[in-house]
Every structure is written in C-alpha cells, then in structure tokens.
Design goal:
Length: 290
C-alpha cells in the first residue's frame, strides 16, 4: 500500500497548501466584496459595493470598452480563424507544407504580454510601420501615423487579440474539417455546387458547433484578460480587469472591496460562458462533431 500511494502522500502537503491558499483566497475575496472586512471595522454582509460598482460612470465606461474590445476581437479572430482553417483544409498544409502549419502555431507559443509589447514596437507612432511609412514618403513624419496603440477606442488591443486568437480558432476547427473526405467536394460538384456553395452548405455547417465553442472561449478570455489592456490601453477608460486593479491598488480599503466585487462579477460571467461553451461542446460531441 505504501509503495502504491507513497508518491501521492509525498505531494499531499503541497497539494493541501495550494488548495487552502487558492480557495481560502477566493472565500476571503468574496466576503470582502460583500463588505465583510474586520480589519476596517466592517462585519456586516451587504451588496452596497456591487451596487456602487454597477452605478458608477467609470464602471459603465469600462464595461463599454471591455465589451467592445471583446466583441470586435472575437468577430475578427473568428473570421480570420475560419479563413486559416479553410486554407489548411484546402491545401492540406499539415501534410504537404508542415513548416507553414508550424508557422501558424507560432502565435500560440507567445505570451500575451510579449505579444502586446510586440505590437507597441510595430504599431506605435514611433514603431516599425510608422518609420517605414515615413521612409517611403507615405507620411510626413512618424507622428502622423494613426494612433493604433494606447488609443481610447482599443484598436491596439483588438489587433493583438485578433493576431493571437485567430490561430487558436483555426486549430480548433481544422480537426473537424480534416474529417471531411475529399470525395465530398466531388459529389457536390456533380450536383452543380460551386466552391462557395460547398463551403456555405457543407463546410460551415460542419464546423458550426466547434466554431461557437471557440468563439465563446475567445470572447470570455478577451473579456477578462489583464496583460494586453494594461499594456496597450489608456488610463481612462480602462477595461474592467485593469479598472479593478486600479481600485485595488489605490490604497483605499473600500475601493479594494469594490474591486473585489468587480472581480467576482467577472468570475460569474466567466463561469456562465464557460458552462455554455462546455454544453455546446458536449452537444456537438454527442452528435459526432468533435
């Protein structure tokens, strides 16, 4: 018995410590978001911090920016991911051009913080593209280049997420497309289908369940991510994760409780969308589309 369980017993102390700190931190944050903060004399549970967060103009502006960036990033990444998956399927790049397939996987290996810094070097008014545009005479000075980084609309974040998440979407869709035999297209041509008809009536319906799951994953991630908005966003309005971080580090204990309320709102949203994505995946799996 000792030989069978000795490795489990050896990691048990570290496992218990990790679980205690993780769930203990969650429980402590939840209690403080409801106003239970004995260190400052608050020992009554209430919803005032949630109400305060939802009614403040700064929260509403941050929510608008967060949803806008998440929606645009999801839409663009989904469209580009579909195109990349169709290219992989059409030209069979995984078998015929494996180096192109690995090149597509490259953005997945780059951390989001590094990707955001890369966009600063490339898209800022002092970046690579601005200097190249000035060199070839397209603009009079690098400062004339459009503001794409640290802009109030959030285009820098949208571009970064699109570049990062489109390969993720494509690599989730490609296994579904790989199950479709080449004979399907020949059969469709017999019935007079053109390439676009084949894509719209055969390929897109086949990848729809996986596409919905991938899009939900991208949306939830971009809705709650911190690194890229912190690096590429503006001071006001900030995305909700950055806004919550600003409140938490402001030095005011009441602001800290409000920040934890925002974090828990994001946690609930993440859980709901994660559950929806899981149900969609299970539904597609039961139907035979992995």
């Amino acid at each position: 018995m000792w030989r069978r369980n000795k490795y489990a017993l050896l990691v048990l102390p570290a496992l218990l410590l990790t679980i205690t700190l993780f769930f203990g931190g969650l429980a402590d944050g939840l209690l403080k978001s409801f106003g239970y903060f004995p260190a400052i004399g608050q020992e009554t549970l209430h919803l005032s911090f949630y109400q305060q967060a939802l009614t403040e103009r700064a929260f509403q502006d941050s929510l608008l920016l967060t949803v806008r960036v998440a929606l645009l990033s999801t839409i663009f990444a989904t469209i580009l991911g579909i195109v990349l998956a169709l290219v992989l399927y059409t030209f069979q790049l995984r078998s015929k051009r494996p180096w192109l397939f690995r090149l597509l996987q490259l953005p997945l290996t780059i951390p989001h913080l590094a990707a955001g810094y890369f966009m600063v070097l490339v898209l800022s008014q002092s970046g690579l593209i601005a200097r190249l545009a000035h060199t070839v005479g397209w603009i009079d000075a690098p400062a004339k280049f459009p503001v794409m980084v640290n802009d109030a609309f959030g285009w820098g974040m949208v571009i970064t997420y699109t570049w990062k998440e489109a390969p993720f979407v494509a690599l989730l869709l490609y296994p579904v497309l790989a199950r479709i035999g080449s004979g399907w297209y020949d059969t469709a041509r017999i019935y007079g289908a053109r390439p676009w008809n084949y894509i719209s009536t055969v390929l897109l319906p086949a990848i729809r369940p996986a596409l919905l799951t991938a899009s939900l994953i991208v949306f939830v991630y971009t809705l709650t991510a911190f690194e890229v908005p912190y690096l590429l966003g503006v001071t006001y309005p900030a995305t909700l994760p950055v806004y919550a971080y600003q409140l938490y580090t402001s030095g005011n204990f009441e602001d800290r409780s409000q920040a934890l309320a925002i974090f828990w709102l994001l946690t609930v949203v993440t859980f709901v969308f994660g559950l929806i994505a899981y149900r969609l995946y299970r539904k597609s799996y039961d139907r035979g589309w992995e």
